[in-house]
Automatic annotation (TrEMBL), chain A:
InterPro entries: ABC_Gly_betaine_transp_sub-bd. It holds the Pfam family OpuAC. It comes from the Bacteria. This is Glycine betaine/proline transport system substrate-binding protein. CDD domains: PBP2_BCP_2. One of its GO terms (cellular component) is ATP-binding cassette (ABC) transporter complex.
From TrEMBL, chain B:
One of its GO terms (cellular component) is ATP-binding cassette (ABC) transporter complex. PANTHER family: GLYCINE BETAINE/PROLINE BETAINE TRANSPORT SYSTEM PERMEASE PROTEIN PROW, GLYCINE BETAINE_PROLINE BETAINE TRANSPORT SYSTEM PERMEASE PROTEIN PROW. It is a multi-pass membrane protein. Residues 140-319, 453-633 form the ABC transmembrane type-1 domain. It holds the Pfam family BPD_transp_1. It comes from the Bacteria. It comes from Kribbella kalugense. One of its GO terms (biological process) is glycine betaine transport. This is Glycine betaine/proline transport system permease protein.
């Protein structure tokens, strides 16, 4: 008993001694930087390319404009909902979603478009590079039936397997397979994680794989997937979903902001509106985040330092 | 006398029932070859039915701006933010939380000691120190704040409901159905609408967690109250106690330890929701896991998952110790010690508010990156070494078992499947099995996702059989051997709370994107709960019974099969039921690794607005499958329980 108490007292004394030498909380309080920019809510969709956009914009908004940026990690659908409930102000990379634009921009008038991000999105069917090398004609869709046997798996019921991805993305693959009379079965992988893992395994162990994928994507820094040429896209060829027999359209990835934010006159809105870069720029930042394991903020800082002139045009300098 | 007639009936019934089951199955297979491909109710990936479109149109009907929901949202938001301000987020105009890490560790260890014992206090301090050293202090505290909020609110609702369901038979029946719904309806189905009612933020995340986590507490409270011996209640009544007195003086004290098990399971369930809640911006470890997975960084995801497991183990052991602690007032010595400890805690809190080293967890002793590195190295090694072999296993199981079963279920006309299942339910469980089966199958047809339901049913059946087999083996082993039990528990806890997202990547590498991968993930998730319940059941078999069997020279195998398993049958029924429910609650996760079918439909409904209705219908289909299988197994078990087992006869 006594020993215990002594031990307690001794520990307390020891703690007091070490503690009093330490730095006090709030000693180096930074001066609060708050100009007229205020706060805005930025949704962060779950892919690295988006994170690159978000990192750079919030770095510039915080450092140059003195805004407070509240980042919210949300799936796309929920972010769109956020425009109507006032919890999301800015979406920095939107992939099409004509139905949601119709609902939230045209019908409910709670969101507005804020122009292109300059990044071009591509959706299509891809094979790992080793296959393109070994079977050079595989990139033409007409020869896909010839190779269908290669792509058979336990899931594809005797046909070739076409692996589809994250349900968030638009897909016409079932219709495409039917309308191009391909001897393939669409198998849902269900997530981007599953797709990337499948490609990684396919390239490493030289396994055949045909799958739905998209650019820009950080994974291209690791494996340069090769796109299959489907019948070329022409405006209107995808009008009726069940009858699609052509490639996916090129996507111009754009920005969406809430109506409230657009009308607020905040300098942050001008920044978001002027923000425009290229696939290479986004890839560079995404690479730093995904491969070099930098924090988004550090990656953004590095990129901004090297590209000050681009940033200046966003700021209207 | 009773036992003699009982065994006679068994001799007559047993063979007849299995013969009938066999005949039904043979007829089914024969009919399948004739009727295959007719009326299979196929629905393509992007196709919807009128019901799905109707659900789509009415999604926003219970929208925001409702005074009732707003009141709940504001109250819950304030509560969670208060907890976050206390332990995780910079608050009250200071750059650090109100209580720094030293204060949190001191308070937690003190509480663990005061309510439990000194062993769990040491464990608490060590556990919290460990997550700090992992470099995840703030994330862990965010997760802890959210979990504590969700658990407290769950208990606020669940304990009174559980007591009510324990006292009233009618409430019990309704509650069972609602709880089945809450536990099997995939979270993805209500995650998006929840953000509409409760906005994006802590409230929606807490309430999503609450819906999933509250059922075990209700179930076990009701179960505890119902199993208090009627004699005790009678005695209290005859001594003139009022209803209220009987409840507070007899029923509640006598059911305390089971209620604590319920609280325990609620905590586990809440922690297993951490990653899912992160999809609607719940702060904490879930975010770390999801971010790491975007770049397939298994190591970092594992590190965060490990922190969740550590928190789970600490909370589990503390609540268990608190439940086991005899209810008595502290003696003088303990009171003095408690007071002294309290002063120490106050000093620690003061330090953590004053000095930076006690406020922010020192970052120079981080082992998080080493853990991450080791984890990814191990995964890579396993993938490289076992990669080919595992693909072989997958193909063998898929082609040998899964594909034939699935072909039988999906290829037969829907009415044939319905007739067969209802017939089997009737043979195995009587009308108690047949009626729910018929109702559920009818509703399944109405959901419009019949074909997908049958695909999911095939995988679910296979996964459940594996879960029960493995769970029984492990459970018997752990139930008979204390040392095994001590070693196996943390592994089971890890299986239950490690976010499935963490092991999906290695599983994908080992088995590719396939239904088999989904089955494997479901098995990992469901085996722990089955094992735990079986082990508890085996341990509860009276020592005298086992001794008696041993003394007449029975072998271990005889003791297990003739004594322990039959006596623990009630626990085994519960274990099968929970194993099944846990398998079903992984259907959506399975959809993310290639299982397709209902899981994929639900995930797609969460991601694409035009598929919302279909996702909701698929979610309901999962619930229907769960209710149907549960009712059939319960009815079958009830039927066998009416007769003394063969073990008793010898």
């Amino acid at each position: 008993m006594k020993k215990l108490r002594y031990a307690g007292v001794l520990t307390a004394v020891a703690l007091a001694l070490t503690g009093c030498g330490g730095e006090k909380v709030g000693a180096d309080k930074p001066a609060a930087a708050g100009k007229d920019c205020g706060t805005f809510n930025l949704t962060v969709s779950p892919w690295v390319g988006y994170e690159a956009n978000a990192a750079v914009v919030s770095y510039v908004a915080t450092k140059d404009l003195g805004c407070k940026v509240v980042e919210k990690n949300l799936k796309e659908e929920i972010a769109w909902q956020g425009f109507s409930t006032g919890e999301v102000d800015v979406n920095l990379e939107n992939w099409g979603h004509e139905d949601l634009k119709q609902k939230y921009i045209t019908d409910d008038k709670v969101a507005v478009e804020a122009g292109s991000t300059g990044v071009k999105g591509v959706i299509g069917w891809y094979v790992p590079p080793w296959m393109a090398k070994q079977y050079p004609d595989i990139t033409d869709w007409k020869s896909l039936n010839k190779y269908a046997g290669l792509f058979k798996t336990s899931e594809s019921g005797g046909k070739g397997q076409l692996l589809d991805g994250d349900p968030s993305y638009v897909t016409n693959d079932e219709a495409l397979v039917k309308n191009l009379s391909l001897n393939y079965k669409v198998v849902q992988s269900g997530s981007e994680t599953a797709l990337i893992q499948a490609f990684r395994d396919a390239e490493k162990n030289k396994k055949p794989l045909l799958a739905y994928f998209y650019e820009p994507q950080w994974f291209f820094n690791e494996v340069k997937l090769v796109k299959i040429n489907l019948p070329a896209y022409k405006t209107g060829c995808d009008a009726v979903p069940a009858k699609v027999a052509c490639d996916y359209p090129p996507y111009d990835l754009d920005k969406i902001v809430s109506k409230k934010f657009a009308d607020s006159g905040s300098p942050a809105y001008d920044l978001v509106k002027n923000f425009k870069w290229t696939n290479e720029d986004q890839n560079a930042v995404a690479r730093m985040i995904a491969v070099d394991k930098l924090t988004p903020d550090a990656a953004a800082e590095k990129w901004v330092k090297d590209n000050q002139s681009t940033v200046n045009t966003w700021l209207g300098k | 006398m009773a036992s003699i007639t009982g065994s006679v009936e068994i001799e007559v019934r047993r063979p007849r029932r299995s013969v009938v089951v066999g005949v039904v199955l043979v007829v089914w297979v024969a009919a399948y070859f004739v009727l295959r491909g007719i009326d299979t109710l196929v629905l393509g990936g992007q196709e919807t039915t009128a019901l799905h479109r109707w659900l789509n149109d009415h999604r926003d009907d219970v929208g925001q701006g409702n005074v009732f929901f707003d009141a709940i949202r504001i109250a819950v938001d304030h509560f969670v933010v208060l907890l976050q301000n206390l332990v995780s987020q910079p608050s009250f105009d200071r750059p650090v939380p109100a209580i720094g890490w030293l204060g949190v560790v001191a308070i937690s260890a003190y509480c663990a000691w005061a309510f439990g014992n000194w062993k769990v206090a040491v464990l608490t301090a060590a556990g919290l120190g460990f997550v700090g050293v992992q470099g995840l202090w703030q994330e862990s505290m965010d997760t802890l704040a959210l979990t504590v909020a969700a658990v407290l609110l769950s208990l606020l609702v669940a304990i009174p409901l559980g007591i009510w369901a324990g006292l009233s038979d009618r409430a019990f029946k309704v509650a069972t159905l609602v709880l089945d719904l809450m536990q099997t309806l995939p979270t993805f189905v209500y995650l998006a609408p929840l953000t509409l009612f409760f906005a994006i933020g802590p409230a929606a995340a807490t309430i999503a967690t609450l819906i999933y986590a509250a059922p075990p507490a209700v179930r076990l409270t009701a179960h505890a109250i119902r199993s208090v011996p009627p004699e005790s209640v009678e005695a209290a009544r005859s001594l003139g106690s009022t209803r209220g007195q009987t409840l507070t003086k007899v029923l509640l004290p006598m059911s305390r330890s089971t209620v604590v098990v319920g609280i325990n399971q609620t905590i586990m369930a809440a922690l297993s929701m951490v990653t899912v809640a992160a999809l609607i911006d719940a702060p904490g470890l879930g975010q770390t896991v999801l971010k790491a997975l975007q770049t397939l960084d298994v190591g970092v995801a594992f590190n965060a998952g490990l922190a969740i497991v550590v928190l789970a183990i600490v909370l589990d052991r503390v609540t268990t110790a608190a439940g086991d602690r005899p209810w008595r007032t502290a003696n003088r010595r303990r009171r003095i010690l408690l007071a002294a400890g309290g002063v120490g805690v106050l000093v620690a809190v003061w330090f953590s508010r004053t000095y930076v080293w006690a406020a922010e967890f020192p970052s120079q002793i981080g082992i998080g990156s080493q853990i991450a590195k080791v984890a990814s190295d191990v995964t890579n090694w396993v993938q490289d070494v076992f990669g080919g072999f595992t693909y072989g296993v997958r193909d063998a199981v898929t082609n040998g078992l899964l594909n034939p079963l699935e072909a039988l279920l999906t290829g037969s006309p829907w009415w044939l499947v319905t007739v067969v299942v209802v017939a089997l339910a009737a043979v195995l469980g009587g009308w108690r099995g047949a009626v729910p089966a018929a109702v559920c199958l009818g509703l399944l047809v109405a959901t419009g996702v019949w074909q997908d339901s049958m695909v999911t049913l095939a995988s679910t059946l296979l996964a459940t059989v594996v879960v029960v087999a493995v769970g029984l083996a492990l459970g018997v082993w752990a139930g008979r051997n204390r040392r095994v039990d001590v070693w196996i528990r943390p592994v089971l806890d890890a299986g239950q709370t490690m976010p499935p997202f963490v092991y999906l990547v290695p599983f994908l590498a080992l088995f590719g994107t396939s239904r088999f991968t989904a089955i494997a993930a479901a098995v990992v998730f469901a085996v722990p709960v089955t094992t735990k319940i079986v082990a508890d059941g085996i341990k509860a078999v009276p020592v005298a019974t086992v001794e008696a069997a041993n003394s007449v020279g029975s072998s271990s195998w005889q003791v297990i099969s003739k004594v322990q398993l039959p006596v623990a049958r009630r626990a085994i029924t519960l274990a099968v039921n929970q194993g099944l429910i846990y398998v079903l609650s992984m259907v959506v996760v399975g959809g993310l690794v290639g299982a397709g079918a209902l899981g994929y439909d639900v995930a797609a409904g969460f991601a694409q607005s035009e598929l919302y209705g279909k996702g909701l219908a698929a979610g309901l289909a999962i619930v229907l499958l769960g209710v149907m299988l549960d009712r059939i197994t319960q009815a079958a078990a009830r039927r066998t329980q009416n007769f003394p087992s063969r073990g008793d006869k010898q």
